[in-house]
């Protein structure tokens, strides 16, 4: 598939007004996307667990205009209140996708959106937010073209979400989503995320992710700036090669259920992401002292308990604690006893692997 496959021809249906709602989850990368080319094309492939609890619910009410407008016509409500400062980001997104959704200027849209996770929790809402918005717009397109297949709908929703925020393309489906061309993965694409197409050992079913909110403040460095700093980064080529190799290694890990190797790859990926930030120019550190305290506690506990708990990180200070279903009691007790003390106001979110967005 190429970009042009997503440009529609004539629509078969006429619609005047209606409303669609989607709930779309966040995701946590195991192999990280960090660095991109033009048009949100990733510099390396990535893979993520789709989450379940952390999600954005978005509704779009649409009403056909008397004639095509010269600009986008929309109102935006965040958690029930008008939110003017979100509008420019949405306008940029609409501009990027207009050639793929030529009806955008034919309607007035009222976009209402809310997150399941607490406001300013330090949890990025771009993956869940942009995927929910892309899905709602696809639902409108499906009304205009009811013959569209489910497979095409999901691919195009992922394709559009990617143009809003790269990682958002991994939030349409679950439970394991891969994005970016990878020689060892059939069907993989830079344009959209695909459901991981190979065997997944049952140990990965119902995997847990307890998100420890170490620092609930605004991100110091936006991911846009972070991705840009991978241009001319001294370690960029090695890093991009490593991501390909880690995906190849994970294939075996996923089929055999080898948690020891899983942990090695996932923790190394998290630390490499932060190492890239620390070695760019300008350099920056997003981990906080409590991030490191938690990492060290996890290592000590894993050794003594012989469990398979491990961590991963996003572009921030919060820690995602990952563990299998059959260890949940022991690990959750450890989290409560030893890790919650490092969270801002003792806050954490219990999440687990999920199965993708839902139409409401
Ligand atoms: O989707 P963006 O542009 O916000 O980038 C997100 C990048 C990481 O979250 C740090 C890694 C990833 O693969 O999700």
3D architecture notes:
The mean pLDDT is 96. The chain has helices spanning 87-97, 126-144, 150-164, 223-228, 236-256, 259-278, 289-305, 328-339; strands spanning 17-31, 36-37, 41-42, 46-64, 73-78, 81-82, 107-115, 176-179, 193-195, 208-212, 310-313, 319-323, 348-352, 358-359. It is of the alpha+beta class and 360 residues long. The chain is globular and about 70 Å long. Strands 1, 4, 5, 6, 7, 8, 9 and 14 form an 8-stranded mixed β-sheet that branches. A 4-stranded antiparallel β-sheet has the order 11-12-10-13. The protein has a two-stranded antiparallel sheet with strand order 2-3. Bound molecules: (3R)-3-hydroxy-3-methyl-5-(phosphonooxy)pentanoic acid.
Could you name the key traits of this structure?
360 residues; alpha+beta; eight-stranded mixed β-sheet; 8 helices; 34% helix; 23% strand
Unreliable spans: none
H/E series, N to C?
EEEEEEHEHHEEEHHHHEEHEE
> The biggest beta sheet, please?
8 strands, mixed
Q: Give the integer mean of the pLDDT values.
A: 96
Question: How far is the N terminus from the C terminus?
Answer: 29 Å
Count the strands?
14
Structural class: alpha+beta
Count of alpha/pi helices: 8
Range of strand content:
15-25%
Q: What is the general shape?
A: globular
Q: Note the quaternary state here.
A: single chain
Rg estimate, integer Å: 20 Å
Helix amount: 25-40%
Bound molecules: (3R)-3-hydroxy-3-methyl-5-(phosphonooxy)pentanoic acid
